[in-house]
Specification:
Largest sheet: 5 strands, mixed
CATH class of the largest domain: Alpha Beta
Radius of gyration: 19 Å
Shape: globular
Strand content: 5-15%
CATH superfamily of the largest domain: Peptidoglycan recognition protein-like
Number of strands: 7
Helix content: 25-40%
Bound molecules: zinc ion
Order of helices and strands: EEHEEEEHEHHHHHHH
CATH topology of the largest domain: Lysozyme-like
Length: 258
């Protein structure tokens, strides 16, 4: 795939030998690609991303992958807090309140090609394709509730959770019970922690708890408008089961001991 390399951002520094593990998807919330380039390449703005994709599907490479671009800001995922050092940032020319308020099929097609290329090049796990709202759920909404995650799942770029059998659900619920995770809230927070979300302050703060659930809903249940605890819970169980079959139940135990 061809990149446009005419524009370069000065806003980067060294990764200090960190390995690229994650891809973070953003939207610009700006007017158009020209405005996005002018901001992402402006030294005073102190922001950047490795890639920017326009509505017509053009891919701009603003920062070389080997450098640490400044797109994530204060963030958290699986106990990592310096996400910029270990990720590639992709900005989409999209603004929920602008004329560019549609994820065009050309844009999504370019995005998929770019992600597949990066995944292969850096051996990035499909669980590590994340939204900015995953790693900063209390500050950020992008790429937003209209981003076509289902299309990425359909193309096998991100996981597609299977419908579970009753027995599978029972095993997990029994495990919750044995480990003293008795309430839905405890169970929901546990699974969100296991996935990688920042749950450090949500237990006692209702507002943060709701914001985190909302971030999860917008990513995994986009299309669902209302907050529905049961729906979120059911999706989280499928999500947990998907991760467990991959990562073995030992991880669960380690997390409980911590
Ligand atoms: Zn962002």
């Amino acid at each position: 795939m061809k990149y446009i390399t005419k524009y370069k951002s000065p806003n980067y520094n060294s990764r200090n030998k960190s390995i690229i593990k994650f891809i973070i998807i953003h939207y610009t919330a700006l007017k158009n690609t020209a405005e996005a380039i002018s901001i992402l390449c402006n030294k005073r703005k102190k922001v950047s991303s490795h890639y920017l994709i326009s509505t017509n599907g053009a891919v701009f490479n603003l920062v070389n992958d080997k450098f640490r671009a400044w797109h994530a800001g204060e963030s958290f995922w699986q106990n990592f807090t310096d996400i910029n050092s270990i990720s590639i940032g992709i900005e989409l020319d999209y603004n929920p309140f602008g004329k560019n308020n549609k994820f065009s099929s050309k844009m999504i097609s370019s995005l998929k090609k770019l992600i597949i290329k990066l995944k292969n090049k850096y051996n990035i796990d499909q669980n590590n394709i994340l939204a900015h709202s995953d790693i900063a759920p209390f500050r950020k909404k992008d790429p937003g509730k209209h981003f076509p995650w289902k299309s990425l799942a359909f193309s096998k770029i991100i996981p597609n959770f299977k419908k579970l059998r009753k027995d599978d659900i029972k095993v997990i619920e029994n495990w919750f019970y044995i480990n003293n995770l008795k309430t839905k809230k405890q169970q929901i927070i546990f699974v969100l922690t296991f996935i990688g979300y920042d749950t450090r302050n949500v237990n006692k703060n209702y507002k943060l708890y709701n914001r985190l659930k909302n971030a999860y809903k917008n990513r995994y249940l986009n299309g669902v408008d209302k907050m529905n605890n049961n729906l979120i819970y059911n999706t989280l169980i499928k999500h947990l089961h998907f991760l467990l079959t991959k990562n073995k139940i030992n991880l669960l135990h380690n997390l409980m001991v911590r």
